[in-house]
């Protein structure tokens, strides 16, 4: 294992299992926040990084979907009594708040499709080496599309919402396809 310009160990380029497991997670954090390394280097530091980041960022989008829903509940005078049946207050939400609720629910649905695809791609990389095709762009674009989807849904912009939804679904499909191809060939 060699040292990078910051004296931090980096993963070897060979594809042995021990070399891939010996990665030091602190090096990604250090490079990203302390050395001003371009974000593309940070997201693709190892061949498995884009798929791990895709999983993390997709989970963050689900968490971010709570924000507009919380704002809508606040505008509908959410009280502690509403905790007895939080879905019963749906009718009191403004129209944008109802869309925020639907966007929040859809975020969970999208995550349950995308998380296994990202994990499959991650496993395929660790088993077979770097994936071919559009796997890396798909992994990184999917959370970005889902993040744009949220305000498009809340603001009631159906064409943008539909494009983001379809694009993210295609990205997830690409991850399934590339991950399966890599595992079946290996």
What layout of secondary structure does this protein have?
Blueprint lengths: L16 H5 L4 H9 L4 H5 L5 H16 L1 H10 L19 H34 L6 H20 L3 H28 L1
Helix pairs in contact: 4-6, 4-7, 5-6, 6-7, 6-8, 7-8
What this model shows, in words?
With 186 residues, the protein is mainly alpha-helical. The protein has two domains: 1-42, no CATH class; 47-185, Four Helix Bundle (Hemerythrin (Met), subunit A), CATH 1.20.120.550. It has helices at 17-21, 26-34, 39-43, 49-64, 66-75, 95-128, 135-154, 158-185. The longest helix is centred in the middle third of the chain and has 34 residues, at 95-128. The protein starts with 16 loop residues before the first helix and ends with a helix. Residues 1-13 and 15-26 have low confidence and may be disordered.
N- and C-termini, Cα separation: 26 Å
Biggest pleated sheet: none
- Chain-averaged pLDDT: 82
Q: CATH class of the largest domain, please?
A: Mainly Alpha
Task: Please report the number of helical segments.
Answer: 8
| Helix-strand sequence | HHHHHHHH
CATH architectural name of the largest domain: Up-down Bundle
Total count of domains: 2
CATH topology type of the largest domain = Four Helix Bundle (Hemerythrin (Met), subunit A)
**Per the principal axes of the C-alpha atoms, what is the gross shape?**
elongated
Low-pLDDT sequence parts: 1-13, 15-26
Radius of gyration: 20 Å
Give the total of beta strands: 0
